[in-house]
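Work Package 3 (structural annotation) set out to generate three-dimensional models for the target panel prioritized at the project kickoff. During this period the team completed the workflow that converts sequence records into discrete structure tokens, so that structures can be stored uniformly alongside our sequence database. As a representative example, we reproduce one entry of 269 residues exactly as it appears in the project archive.
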Amino acid sequence: MKGRVLVIAGSDSGGGAGIQADIKTVTALGGYAATAITALTAQNTEGVFGIHEVPEDFIALQIRLVLRDIGADCIKIGMLHRPEVIEVVARTLEEEAAGLPIVVDPVMVAKGGASLLEEQAVDSLKRRMLPLAAVLTPNLPEAAALAGFEIRGESDAKHAAAVLASLGCPAVLMKGGHMEGVVLKDLLFEDGRMIECFEQPRIKTVHTHGTGCTTASAIAAGLAQGMPLRDAVARALAYVRQAILSAPGFGHGHGPLDHAHTVAPFSVR
């Protein structure tokens, strides 16, 4: 087991996204996952039906206790749904995690359409969290909300990456799932310049719940294990693709992935 990842995110009672997906992903890729839970959600494959707040001081306490004892090689950030939560996480990481790479997945909307980020929290996310990020992993609607304009194609994506770099985020993986076409393009930028376009055939399936959380956590695991960013992203995308292809087909809506496809079955002789 190599690579300690502290995941700061909300939970998903259905197990497909959030903290549950993060733990599975980091473990399946050979790392060690610790957590600081920012919110509890009641959800399944058909949607989010409730959010239970975690007090800000308790979120900070979780982060401090993990970092001061177990430590971390990388931080992964997911659901930070309110400005107060963003502020306390940013402040605690500035105090406790200086120098650690931070992967920020700007979770805004659940797969079923439920909002997971208050509207007034977008500015807080841009102002407090983006400057701390080593890499940002938005889908196109999230990137558009952060950049302030609609993204219709690759040229818009490049412009958005430059805007996000100007806000203090040195690297951006622009996920292309919302673009049309039979070929899926995920664009990796550093300092506003595209350094890689990862292309793969689009998979036609509804079993994509938690792909964003899973991708970001897989990248964080790679960085925690000392991989260069480009290699961490390439492995993460390959891992997620296979997890979609071998999805178990659970639920009546957007089903979960097969996070354990890297794990060999254990048998007792």
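The longest strand covers residues 193-201.
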